[in-house]
Amino acid sequence: PKHVRTDSTKVWASDSFTVGILGDLHLDPRKMEDYEEGREQWVKILEEAKKENEPDNVALVSLGDLGESKNCDHNDENPSELFAGTTVCHELAAEFLTGFGVPYEVVGGNHDLEGLDEFDTDEANLELFLRAHNKPTPNFIRTIADKTLMVGLTSTVFRDAKYTSHEVTVDQEQIDWFEQVLIDHPAEDGWKIFVATHAPPLGSGLRTLQENHVVNGCCWLNHSDEEQCLKYINLVRKHRCVKAWFSGHFHLGQDYQDSITFPTIDPKEGPYPNRGSCVFVQTSVIRGGTSRDGRRQSRLLRGNKDGFDICTVDHMKEGAIRVDATVTYKDVNHEVGVYRHEDILEKGEKFFKVYSPSAGDEMHPPDENLVNYNEAGELHITEPITMDTKAWWYMSSGRVLGTLNGMLIEYEPSALAPLGLVVGADELIGKRISVIDSGIDAEECEISYEEGMEGADCAAVTDSREQALLLLGPDSDSGPDVVVVQPNEDGTYWRKIVRNKVRRMQEKRREKAAMAFASMRVPELVTSNGEAEEKEPKIISSWGPYVSTVGTAKTTGVEGLTK
Length: 563
Description:
The protein has 563 residues and is α+β, with helices and mostly antiparallel strands. 18% of the residues lie in helices and 21% in strands. It has 9 helices and 23 strands. The chain has helices spanning 33-52, 87-98, 122-132, 172-184, 210-214, 226-238, 425-428, 456-459, 501-521; strands spanning 17-22, 58-62, 104-106, 140-145, 148-152, 192-196, 242-247, 260-261, 279-282, 297-304, 307-314, 320-331, 334-339, 379-381, 391-394, 400-404, 407-411, 418-423, 432-437, 467-472, 482-485, 525-526, 532-533. It has a 7-stranded mixed sheet, with helices on one face. Helix 4 (172-184) runs parallel beside helix 6 (226-238). The longest helix is centred in the C-terminal third of the chain and has 21 residues, at 501-521. The relative contact order is 0.10. Residues 1-9 and 453-461 have low confidence and may be disordered.
């Protein structure tokens, strides 16, 4: 049937299994040494696993981003073409993955449809991806032991991304299919499901990169679609058959405890994390040039009827296997996870843990950085914001905002996971923050006769409490006294600043053409000594949709930028 590679009803002679899991490959045909070394290490591990398990209970899963997003000297006819997403990229990846000696599955990441010069549409690029890897559909389901499934979901959008092309976007058809798989394989009947996606779902609690994936809105699956983004963690909370979820995307190593998060923790350590029965697992990379922290590691999943181990295969230590966590099933709906080692740091390396707010629970208060409103219903952070300021608060709408690393960040209310950048450190540091009431009561309603705003005050009266988020400028003569941070039309605050790559490439080409055109028309600059010098034209771009609160469009200039 559609979407299904193997028969999930087959009963195996053994309930033990082994799955090798590879993080972002970013293959570069000029730099294959690390890949070949890593594969040799894996082949030995998987050969041993085939001796200990039924042969069909041993498999390999690649978490996507198969090719390097650079020109790799792979196309003499187009020396600027990016390697990722091209036919030659996916053919090389298929050849590489086939060489592990066991069946492989692959899910697509945000770079796997990046063959922009070769394919005009995401659909055409996806067709090549499926054909190259012998995939009937973007998603997969594979039986790896008795009542044990490996399931994967693929990102299918790049050119058509509403915002950044590096968001990992799983289409609605796959999401619906995934939900039905969970419904059809309940934990109560003994089913155990392990999931593979390129990016993790919101609510996973895994370590993230604030300065990269968070601020650009590409941290979580379907990050920019609030309903779809929340769907995954809600499914995990509802369906206890989901036992572990593997992801890559961040290029971070596996030596830290927050590269694995458990569904439950000791109440002495903090509030209940509300992750169902699922262990979330970050996966590193094979090639050193793609690592953000110098690690070269993969994941090894080994399990049986009693539970499973999550291990690291360390490619810098001849493929040595290290057990990172052991999960033991208590019953079909509960399990106990144990870290098998502390954080492992290299010499001179400092441990860092990304801060996220904690709302607490019945046994724990919110963390100390929660800022409360005063009796007047106002909130004030009176000290100027610095890089070290940690504070967070609820808006009356239920939205959650907070400061971290000098930035103003929005957090998803139910999981308090970071959503995106509201105000950058360049604008926020040195300012103070206030939240005040901005609504009006019905009896105070006044008719406005400002052009374009007629009757607007009365029309806007609602039962909800309206607020204004203010940035108060430093005590100086430069800059505005107060900046009003307006929410987006959907009520969120985080800014979708980065558009998709195709649009940005088009914009750069327009600027390049404008520069060439202007260079021919701008007269030479004559200096005081009478000699002519070339003057480089000043080129800027302007974007919509909003630059003011006016109700009638009469001007479009932005002070200090276009006029």
